[in-house]
Design brief:
eight-stranded mixed beta sheet; 491 residues; 17 strands
Length: 491
Amino acid sequence: MMPGKGVRSETKPKVRHIKAKHQKKRFIRSKDPILAVFMWGVQHSINELNTSIEPSLLLPEDFKAFSKVRVENQYYNKENLPGHFKFKEYCPRVFHDLRKRFRMDDFEYMNSIINRPPQPSSNPGRSGAKFFNSYDQRVVVKSISSEEVALLHQILQPYHVHVVTTEGETLLPQYLGMYRLTVNNAESYWIAMRNVVSSTVKVHWKFDLKGSTVDRAASSKEKAKTSPTFKDNDFMESGKKIVIGEAQKEPFMKMLEKDVTLLQRMNLMDYSLLVGIHDCTLPPDPEEDEEDLDEGNGYLSSDDNIIEEAPHSPISPAAGMSGDELVSSGEALDLPTISEPLPSQLKQPSPPVEELPEGTGRTADVEETGSPTPQVLAAQEPAPLEPGGATAYTYQPAVVEGEKAVEAALSEGLYPVIDKTVDVFAIPGVTGARPQVYFMGIIDVLTNYGARKRAAHAAKTVKHGAGAEFSTVNPEQYARRFLEFMVKNIE
């Protein structure tokens, strides 16, 4: 029946179907498949550790343990990660405990690795080792051999005891993690450690010091680099001394002696003291300041980086995986997401730069390269006094601990201000001398004095004579010469 006048027909209300949209996650991935797997693996490992119950004590088994993940047929995301790879972490609980004792939070460590792909270092190792620096310069990632992996396993327990005994106050390398990556059926081994040199201020000179003189000068190729590393002979030719004052020299040498005694007891040699020097009287590099502004918080991509939407992970953080684990095809892997930078990672504002007065001894070569030769370095003297007794450069370094102390020092007009909780190897130069900050730590300790080194010692003795100061000597002689050199050159 047709509806009559004044009668309304019944209509169904419209139902709006709303499709939920998940917030997009952005991640940065390297085009280098090894670095891509490394970044994914570190994030996966940290998530696993922080979702499982932490034991109150480390057991002997923890120093032999490992976790391993195997991923296959990952066809859906091949542009970001290889289709087949394995990630293995050695002694995860031990390195987790070491990071705590070195006062580096697990998530600080993870963010240093995953917020932006590590960048290759301009100073590869003499042995052919590859070096990468994290985007914030706090972590160094180095390729190592399977023999070095075995050696680190051998010394890991006494090394850990030493770190516990000294409460983390050591000049030894601060090892943060050790891994094996298998990509395209090729295995590679990697060690992550804290960077010795500063992550917040420019290091103008670097020296690798062993206390020996045979073949201990930087090559012409090394000196031509933007940031060269000089050696013992270069250091002595420059006439420089490490001037930290008696009050700081005594505890520093005690710490160094404890560390060297441990290395000697573990039959290790051929290590070096890496010395980085920040000269507070040299003006900041305008090009570097512009680069810092362009990079912002360090999240910008480059030609070697990929920024895309991150898929969800099939690997549950609570799964508690151990041994070989297979991720089936058709499922997605969790990818690192971008987090905010830590306050300690933010760049310090550069102070106003006064013009260089004439006669300071700084040549055009110094200003252009920023890395003078030892001869030029030796010729540099503090700036002449201005009328009134103040120097032309009023910058005075301050090494403090914690963000509040950094803010207080900056408000007082001090520069540069080094946060000891970030740059743990920093030592300020003595007050009244040329204002400098030193960054000093022991590196390259994974060399055992075995049959190969004994043979090298015999060959060099024949070539250079028994009294020659070459580096390949037994651990006792190496330790004694090393300490004598440091006592002589640290004031």
